[in-house]
Amino acid sequence: MKISAVIITFNEEDNIRAACESVSWADEILVVDSESTDSTREIALACGARVLNRPWPGFSAQKQFATDSATHDWIFNLDADERVSDELKASITSLRGSQSGPSASGFRIPRRTFYMNRWIKGGGWYPNYQLRLFDRRRGRWRERLIHESVVMNEGARVETLLGDLLHYTVQDAAEHQRLIGERYAPLSARQMFNDGKRTSSIRIALAGPSAFLRSFILKGGFRDGLAGLAIANFAAHHDFLKHSLLWEIQRAEREKPSEK
């Protein structure tokens, strides 16, 4: 069972070395870089990675390109701001050492996020399972603008590995706010529209409060103290903004001149 660890990057010079080192156990490290202007590619090469340069086509398309470009059929996907924990590495090592071969075609991994100087327990942020180790002959990346994920073929068996994938997310509240405004909310709104979902003034009004209650109360964000409160407030802002942007998309589509 040979594994290619694949990482997509853009200006990740602060993260790429640690990311590559955390998958040094892989038979190949492949980095697909989207024309970085910093030293991401040079650092990745120094870590022994094979580096491909490709203009940015979107998250799903870039990850699928990386998957298709890998040398081996078993793919371990890692984001540049993620690390493989020792326990997860041990689970993968045990899996590779099995004489009977892997027991499934895909493996989910719990992801634990470090935010505001603490590991987050609630708010829906943990365990946040991610299907990151899979046989590319039995699955592929689903075409989505955001929240991309691997979809396995019908009948393919999926199991869960022990050990966390460690996620070192945004640096501070300002970056969190910026990413919501520039990436997450706009892409989420467009994906909702593409999926046939629509919003209204009532839904816009309720989106924020319901997201806050869901994150802080129902999903136990209160257990994380101030960090949990911040996560819930940002969740409320994100949902309010994405519904507002969806409403603007709807209006723009309605106002387009009809074709005769």
Descriptive account of the structure:
By secondary structure, the chain is α/β, with parallel strands linked by helices. The chain has seven helices and 13 strands. The protein has helices spanning 16-22, 40-46, 59-69, 86-97, 173-194, 201-218, 225-254, and strands spanning 3-9, 28-33, 50-53, 74-77, 82-84, 106-109, 111-115, 118-119, 130-135, 139-141, 150-152, 158-160, 165-168. The chain is globular. The model has no long low-confidence stretch (mean pLDDT 95).
Walk me through the topology.
Blueprint lengths: L2 E7 L6 H7 L5 E6 L6 H7 L3 E4 L5 H11 L4 E4 L4 E3 L1 H12 L8 E4 L1 E5 L2 E2 L10 E6 L3 E3 L8 E3 L5 E3 L4 E4 L4 H22 L6 H18 L6 H30 L6
Parallel strand pairs: 1-2, 1-4, 2-3, 6-12, 7-13
Antiparallel strand pairs: 4-9, 5-13, 6-9, 7-8, 10-11
Helix pairs in contact: 5-7, 6-7
Strand order of the largest sheet: 3-2-1-4-9-6-12
Low-confidence stretches: none
Q: Which range does the strand content fall in?
A: 15-25%
**Mean of the pLDDT scores?**
95
The arrangement of helices and strands along the chain is: EHEHEHEEHEEEEEEEEHHH
CATH class of the largest domain: Alpha Beta
Dominant shape: globular
Beta strands, count: 13
Q: What is the architecture of the largest domain at the second tier of CATH?
A: Alpha-Beta Complex
Features:
260 residues; Spore Coat Polysaccharide Biosynthesis Protein SpsA, Chain A; alpha/beta; 41% helix; four-stranded mixed sheet; 2 domains; globular
